[in-house]
Amino acid sequence: MRRKMVAGNWKMNGTRASVAELIESLRQQQLPGSVEMIVFPSELHLGSVIEALEAMPVGVGAQDCAVERGFGALTGECSATQLADVGAGWVLVGHSERRLVLGEGLEVINRKFAAAQAEGLVPVLCLGETLEQRQAGSTMQVVGEQLSSVIADRGIGSFANAVIAYEPVWAIGSGLTATPDQAQEVHAAIRGLLAEHDPQVAASARLLYGGSVKADNAAQLFAMPDIDGGLVGGASLKAEEFGAICRAAGN
Ligand code: PEP
């Protein structure tokens, strides 16, 4: 049985005051014990969020990590070693905003995935196609290439300690959610691809859907057989909305 998971990607948002307020509001929420909940604040707030959430059943992860482990001359970067040191347990890898806006390619993503796992962090590998790619009928080719690149580099066994998030780029922050059937189709194909390498890993891997998940569409998405929860952007900045999404995953 795969435990449902809801992850909140806070992206480049928040001041010290607004983050403290968000955490205070999260404290007021009834959160389901059956669901694994993680938030991904900006790196700047990581340490304070980890401390503030210590007594809550909500884990904390980072939105990115450096390609290199350890310490050294890599200005502006933060290594998985440093993230683990402050107590982060997770890291987003290959988010479409980093692939498309910052030009992160497959090799960089493979290295970040490897660095995260080498430091005991669980990577959440984000995959997804653009609208043009979907319209051209190449969704599975694109998503398959993104996933196969990590499998080829790290081995299928690495997915025993990783989470995959399918996030169609056209659905991120756009208010356009993939229908449960559209999302399920891609999730089933992702699980199928994992199964070609190792059926056991495929059966236990958690596949999250991301792209305009909200309280009012979460339950239908999470009811699909291959959707094990959500990666939530905008809606995770509102504690009530995030709480409702977590409860939808628990039902
Ligand atoms: C995201 O960026 O990971 C995301 C899913 O964003 P949103 O929920 O705002 O579409």
- Helical residue percent band: 40-55%
Number of β-strand runs: 8
Distance between the termini: 15 Å
Q: What class would the helix/strand composition place it in?
A: alpha/beta
Q: What string gives the helices and strands in order? A: EHEHEHEHHEHHEHHEHEH
Tally the helices: what do you get?
Answer: 11
Assigned CATH architecture: Alpha-Beta Barrel
Describe the structure.
The protein is an alpha/beta fold and 251 residues long. It has one domain: Aldolase class I (TIM Barrel). Helix content is 44%, strand content 15%. The protein contains 11 helices and 8 strands. The protein has helices at 16-27, 46-52, 80-86, 96-101, 106-118, 131-135, 139-154, 180-197, 199-204, 215-222, 239-250; strands at residues 5-9, 36-40, 58-62, 90-93, 122-127, 163-166, 206-210, 229-232. An 8-stranded parallel β-barrel has the order 1-2-3-4-5-6-7-8, surrounded by 6 helices. α3 links the parallel β3 and β4 (90-93). The protein starts with a strand and ends with a helix. The mean pLDDT is 97. It binds phosphoenolpyruvate. Phosphoenolpyruvate is lined by residues 9, 167, 172-173, 210-213, 231-235.
Short description:
The protein has eleven helices and eight strands. It has helices at 16-27, 46-52, 80-86, 96-101, 106-118, 131-135, 139-154, 180-197, 199-204, 215-222, 239-250; strands at residues 5-9, 36-40, 58-62, 90-93, 122-127, 163-166, 206-210, 229-232.
